[in-house]
Amino acid sequence: IQLEALSKLALINTTLGEYAEAKTFLETYFSKEDENTERKARANKCLSDIEWALSFEDAGNYAVERLGDDVNTEYSEMSPSTIDGIVYYSSNNYFASNEVVKPRSKIYANKDGKTDLVSSDLNEGDYHVGHYAMNSDQSVVYFTRCKYELNEVKCKIYKQNLKADNAIEELPVHINTAGAHTSQPNIGVDAETGEEVLYFVSDRTGGKGGMDIYYAPIKNGSFKGPFALDAVNTQGDDVSPFYHRPTRQLYFSTDGRKTFGGYDIHSVYNGEQWGEVINLGPSINSSYNEAYFTLSDDGKEGLFSSNRVGSEYIDSELEACCYDIYRAQLEINTETLLAKLFDAETKRPLQGVELVLSALPVAEDKVFYDNAAVDYKMEIRRDLTYSLFAEKAGYEPHEIKIKGDNSTAETEILMSPIALQLNGFVLSEDKEKLSDYTYTITPEDEASRKSVNIGNGKRISDKISKHQDYTIKVEKEGYYPETLVLKQEDLLKEEILDLDIVLKKIPAAVLTKLTLDGYLPMPLFFDNDEPDQNTVSTTTTKNYHQTYLSYFQRRDEYVTQNTAGLDQERKLDVESSVLQFFDNKVKFGDTALEGFTEHLLRFLQQGSQAEIMLRGYASPRSQSSYNDALTSRRVRSVENHFYQWRGGALVPYINSGQLKLTERPLGESQAPPSVSDEISDIKASIYSVDASYERRVEILEITSSNVSQ
């Protein structure tokens, strides 16, 4: 008797929320031996629940209030649901005209503070009626009818077709199993097929214990299964399922898990598989019973039933007997998330990415897209976890998970370009496969790749990305160079790109002067005070290609300096102009110089004589005497190119006088007035495109004549 009393006193105090007192009774209970295994199991669970409740960290997101007396009575009100602004619920506050003692449960509707019994055949008859639930198009209502059978209430689920003369029919026997209690219907959605699913509660055989939750997919009006929801069910009672369609979240109540006392409301996400079961916490659950939770589509307001202190009751001896309906309003806190987009290979900001932000569970997708944007600001709720899905043509889709708990105010998304295999042969005009050629593949926004020499029997084989345009240039001695442009919109359609590139043979007469003239005039650009900074020397040992390489590596620095302090729109314009200068001027000049020199060698080999005129420039940042020396060094670096090219292949022609190099340094005398000469104005005098354009050497012209061999 003492053990039973201690056990009951612990349970009573737990229900009252007096956890310390309950633990005291349990400590006394466990100090004694109890051979009653069932009672001992209850005591162990009670102690475990108390310790869990005391350690629970609650976000306190729900503000709870009891609905008014227009809904709640001294009898039980349960199973609320809101449809088109009307609150439907079940109440035991109904008496048949010939019965004044035993109440029955019927379905009521409340709108704008006015409550009426639902005028429908579903409320007719000598039944307890409850659990009003509609399908998605509101054509069918599901509900429960219960009757006493051998002094025990037994329930079955019915449906009423609102578009077929309000016909009411009992669900088939594989749903309403004979001898079992079947009730609390709710309609959800299958996460994979999108088809509707009937959720309900039953104590049929084969369950885990007590009341279990089952589901039955609905196909063309027929019910499959039903199947036990094993991811949720426990050895206790699992009841009142409610499927929140916008978030794919199933809410239910149970006393079979750790609770604050009695039934607690829990949630579980229905994705590709069922997620973790989560207790909604003490801001909504109490030490009494909470059940029949429903939630508005926007997730901000819930309704549920509870017999907590403050609920109406029939008499003082049955103070905790009866359920009232409560409203739980979600207090939403938000923060701003900044998502930055980058190319995973170049690490440069990436424009034109579409972002889809989805709360998990998915309430509503929010789409962000701006063709010029490289980052997005978005408001997220601190109580939710989000999926952020990024997509851009030519890139692999990318998804990350974000917790809105104020721990991530900024996130970087790295987009990986989709690789495309490029294969190709170089052919003559008569379709003969050529060898001993070189090819260069240049992405539109990257530095030029090195030329690749191809031997006999080899083919072009390279990996490119689908996200940008490319230029392919093929060169072979005795043939005109051929250039192809690969456009992004075409690359996106291909998995493997096979190309045949045809080269036209150069006639012997054209190979000479006309080919060289096609390169001119040729501007070659230099970094500030290069080559050889801080010197007044007029000579240098560097060749032009060496100065080009170090200059081009500073491209991103030039972008940063030119765009500092600009707004987003102006920043993108200036960045584009700087990149175009480096790609279309600086890089192009170095490539053109290589091609020009190749053809110059063949020109000289034919016995022709050539004279090349070079002219140098400098921006007006320093004194004229300094700039004169600087332009001389720049001209000398271009001359060094001709002396050092291919290990001195042109030196014999220079020494014999067959090739002459004529220089004309100009200093700053030709710089336009728009180029700043203010030392303090670093952006304008060093990094600006105007200033950069002035730092150059031009190959202006080539004169020639034939010499005897």
Description:
- The chain is of the alpha+beta class and 709 residues long.
- The protein is 21% helix and 35% strand.
- Strands 10, 11, 12, 13 and 14 form a 5-stranded antiparallel beta sheet that branches.
- Helix 1 (2-15) packs antiparallel against helix 2 and helix 1 (2-15) packs parallel to helix 3 (37-55).
- The termini are far apart.
- Residues 315-319 have low confidence and may be disordered.
Chain-wise SSE layout:
Layout: H1 2-15, H2 19-30, H3 37-55, E1 62-66, E2 77-83, E3 86-94, E4 104-111, E5 114-117, E6 128-134, E7 140-149, E8 152-161, E9 167-170, E10 182-189, E11 196-202, E12 212-219, E13 222-223, E14 227-228, E15 238-244, E16 249-254, E17 264-269, E18 278-279, E19 290-295, E20 301-306, E21 324-330, E22 334-343, E23 354-360, E24 366-368, E25 375-381, E26 385-391, E27 398-403, E28 410-415, E29 419-427, E30 437-443, E31 452-454, E32 460-465, E33 470-475, E34 482-486, H4 488-491, E35 496-502, H5 513-517, E36 522-525, H6 544-552, H7 555-563, H8 568-605, E37 608-616, H9 624-644, H10 651-655, E38 659-665, H11 682-687, H12 689-694, E39 696-706
Parallel strand pairs: 22-28, 29-35, 37-38
Antiparallel strand pairs: 1-21, 2-3, 3-4, 4-5, 6-7, 7-8, 8-9, 10-11, 11-12, 12-13, 12-14, 15-16, 16-17, 17-18, 19-20, 20-21, 22-25, 23-24, 23-26, 26-27, 29-32, 30-31, 30-33, 33-34, 36-39, 37-39
